[in-house]
Amino acid sequence: MADKIKFCVWDVGNVIYNYSLKPLDEWFCEHTRSPEKYLSGRGVFGFDYNDYMKGLISDNGFCQRLCETFDVDFNKESEIAINKALHKGVGRPIKQTQKMMKIMTRNKIENCLLSNALPMLADTAAVKKPYQFVSFELGLLKPDPEIYETVRRCLGCKFEEMIFVDDKERNVRAAADLGICGVVFRAETIEKDLQKILAETGSLLQPTKSKARDR
């Protein structure tokens, strides 16, 4: 029989809540000294955030690199504006995820986060430590297998006792290759996908009968 699930590990952006870089894009469109050059490329959507998400540069260094890349004056005001634009991109919590997190809790399964995260958005997490794992603290990015091994080791479980939910197929595939129950997040199918795993692994607790039924 398959191992019972002990942990459900969730990605954050577009899994816990909707997220968009559009507010950041709009700010740079408005402030760049080279609008034609900015608009001819992918702008902030094509920027390489990896060093920042791995914790290799500071908030200040990240903002400076953005401004230099997109020909914007870098100063304290622009750093504050970039922070605000990133936070403005945080959308509403995804109700299907909220529902399934509650179901996990009812079945004695701990909800965890694993995110390739921008440090400026660390205050938007829905789960607190010790079950919050972020790239800039681990120095690793999904889909590196080592990041899943680090999380497994911290949780003290087997890969087969974990579910991993992410909206990017490559991240889920890397987790599944290690033996984790991987699910590509789709709002319209996430409940069915997770309920199937819980049923197949015997992880669903039997509902407690009410006193009225016992009579």
Characterization of this structure:
The chain has eleven helices and seven strands. It starts with 6 loop residues before the first strand and ends with a helix. Helix content is 44%, strand content 13%. The model is unreliable at 208-215 (pLDDT under 50). With 215 residues, it is α/β, with parallel strands linked by helices. Helix 1 (22-31) runs antiparallel to helix 5 (76-88).
Characteristics of this structure?
215 residues, Rossmann fold, 2 domains, disordered C terminus
Short structural description:
About 45% of the residues lie in helices and about 15% in strands. It is built from 11 helices and 7 strands. The strands form 2 sheets. Strands 5-4-1-6-7 form a 5-stranded parallel sheet, with helices on both faces.
**Secondary-structure element order, as H and E?**
EEHHHHHEHEEHHEHEHH
Tally of structural domains: 2
Q: If you consult CATH, what is the topology of the largest domain?
A: Rossmann fold
Under the CATH scheme, which class of the largest domain? Alpha Beta
CATH architecture of the largest domain: 3-Layer(aba) Sandwich
By DSSP, the count of extended strands is 7
For the sheet with most strands, the description reads: 5 strands, parallel
